[in-house]
Each structure stands twice: as C-alpha cells, then as structure tokens.
Amino acid sequence: MEQLPQDWERALVIAAHPDDIEYGIAAAVATWTDQGKDVRYVLATSGEAGIAGLPPTESAPLREDEERASASIVGVSEVEFLGHPDGRLIEGPELRRDLAAAIRRHRPELVVTGHYGETWGPGMLNSADHRALGRATLDAVADAGNEWIFPELVHLDLWNARWAAVATPTPTHAVDVTAAVDRAVASLTAHQRYLEVLDPATPVEEQAARQIGRVTEPKPGFDAERAVGFELFTFRG
Questions:
Q1: What would the 3-class secondary structure string for 177-217 be?
Q2: Is 133 in contact with 193 (CB distance < 8 Å)?
Q3: Within a 10 A sphere around the Cβ of 122, how many other Cβ atoms?
Q4: Which keywords fit this entry according to its UniProt record (predicted)?
Q5: Statement: the pTM of the whole predicted model exceeds 0.85
Q6: pLDDT, tens digit (0-9, with 9 covering 90-100), for 145-198
Q7: What are 55-98's pLDDT values in tens digits?
Q8: How far is Cα 71 from Cα 52, in angstroms, rounded to an integer?
Q9: Looking at the DSSP assignment, which residues form a beta bridge with residue 232?
Q10: What total of structural domains would you count in the chain?
Q11: CATH at residue 114
Q12: Which domain holds residue 218?
C-alpha cells in the first residue's frame, strides 16, 4: 500500500455532518497540520437532525460549536457550514454547485471526503447523506475546474484540485497517524453532547478511543503502527 501524496500545501475536507471527520480522518488531519499544511473543513449540513430529543433549532448551533472545537484540536481553524438539510442531502446539481463553489473558494490541491459506498460491511448500511455527499464531492472536484457547468459561479475563479482522497474500508493509500492518535481521540471526544446521547452507557472518551483504535488499525502492506486508509483519485498531473 502506497503512502498518500505529500507534495501539497492545502487540503479541503468535505463531510456531511459534524463528527464525520472525527471518525478517523481527523487523525490524518492532525498529522498534516503538524507538517505545516493548511487544512480546512466544509460541512454540508449542521447535523441538526442528529441528536434524539433535541430540536434542530437547538441542535444545529450546538453541533457547529462542537465541530469547531473538535477541528481546533487537530489544528484546523477554518470550518464552513453550507446549510443543507441534515438527513435529506440530495446527490444532484444543487449540492454539486455548492461544493464546487467551496472548492473554488478554498483552492485545495487535495480534497478529502468520507466513505460513500452503500454499506460499511455486511449488514451495515451507510447513511443516505454519506452516500450522496461523497459522490457529489467527487463530481464537484471536476465541476470546480469547468467554466460551463455552473455559469452562476462566474464570480469565483476556476480551480483544479490535483487529487481527491476518500476514507474507505478498502483503501489504496494510507497516512501514518501514529503520532496523532491521542489528538484524534480528543477531537472525537469534543462531540460531547452527540456521543452522550448516542451511547449513554459508555463514557464519551471511551467511545472515542474505541472508534479511533478501530479505524487506525495497521493497514496491510503499509509500514506504520497506526494508519488511516484512503482511496486516491487523480484529477491532473
């Protein structure tokens, strides 16, 4: 398994919900910011439908605050929310347009997003938002460099990212995150209210440590004690 390319300066991580990035990708983010790289986040929704018993009007600002706190732990200061409806993302022109606009604004060499496959494994269905967001993100990487698809974005200069990396259970490339595991756990732990409701019986830090431990297990063919895996797509040389 090859190492993810390192010859870039800016990455944009695109996710559907607050907490999506923290289930593994944040370990790679911490590694990159340690190297002096500029990493930014764009969230399609504010995760307002994600906490049982808490109305969306109260949940949205709470989850946005948790995401900003979480991002700061791994060295990310710029977090943007696009305001699409949680649980109802549609893989179509509107989402692609907004993501393409974000890519043009932030001008990343590397775009990173989450797993968009139908399942996580046998009997484990992936969420509709994840499926829609991941596919729309890959399309938006191409859209951001095309002057004709979304002419209403003429006020934003065209941008061609070099790569897109998708966090997936079947990776082609990996990042050594051995030195970043503790911060990745702390970053997920920052989603305090969300995790408390998700699993009231298990302390939040224990939940986070378990999740990060699982996703950063050593990758076959990659020499690192702890790693995060990605499928890499190349858009231009």
A1: CHHHHHHHHHHHHCCHHHHHHHCCCCCHHHHHHHHHHHHCC
A2: no
A3: 5
A4: Zinc
A5: yes
A6: 999 999 999 999 999 999 999 999 999 999 999 999 999 999 999 999 999 999
A7: 999 999 999 999 999 999 999 999 999 999 999 999 999 999 99
A8: 23
A9: 165
A10: 1
A11: 3.40.50.10320
A12: 2-234
